[in-house]
Amino acid sequence: MYAMTVTRHVQAPRPVVYQALVDPLAIARWRVPDGMVGLVHEFDARPGGRLRISLTYVVADGVGKSGERTDTYQGTFVRLVPDVQVIETSEFETEDTGLRGTMTMTTTLTDAGEGTDVTISYEGIPDGVPAHDNEIGTRMALDKLARLVET
After folding, report:
1. What are the residue boundaries of the Activator of Hsp90 ATPase homologue 1/2-like C-terminal domain, all occurrences included (predicted)?
2. How many CB atoms lie within 10 A of CB 136?
C-alpha cells in the first residue's frame, strides 16, 4: 500500500467547491477520469454515511477492477468540515487481492489568491493500483472539478 497527494488550484470560493464535494450529482460529473462515466449508487454525505460509486470505461480497451469495464467502490464518510475538508474511506468491490484494502481519501480546501487550492491525499492505496494511473486519474478529475465550479 502507498500514499499520494495531488493539489489543483481552482478559481472558485471554498463554499462553492465544498458543495461539489458533497453533492452526488456533482460527484458523478467531476470525480471521474477521462474515458469513464460515473454512477452514484449511494451517497449520504454525513459522518458515518455510506457511499457507493461505479466508474465505467466508455473506451473499448478499458479494464475494470470490479467487472469487465467497471470500477465500483464503497465506503464511509469519516469527517466533514463545511467549506474545509471531507474525509472518506473506500474499498474496491473486487476479488483481486492486489486491489483490496481500505483507502482513506482526504480532500482539503485552502484559500489561495482569489480561489481555492484543492488537495486530495490518499492513504492505503492498494499496490495493485498503479501510482501513475491514480495520479493521472486524480488530475483529470480535478480538472473536471475546476470546470464545474469555475462556471
Report:
1. 12-150
2. 14
Q: End-to-end distance of the chain based on CA atoms, in angstroms?
A: 37
Per-residue pLDDT reduced to its tens digit, 95-140: 878 878 899 999 999 999 899 999 999 999 988 888 898 899 899 9
Q: Quick check: pTM over 0.90? A: no
Report the distance separating Cα 35 and Cα 58, nearest Å.
6
DSSP per residue, 63-124: --SSSSSEEEEEEEEEEEETTTEEEEEEEE--S-GGG-S-EEEEEEEEEETTEEEEEEEEEE
Q: What is the largest CA-CA distance in the chain?
A: 45
37 pLDDT band, cuts 50/70/90, is confident
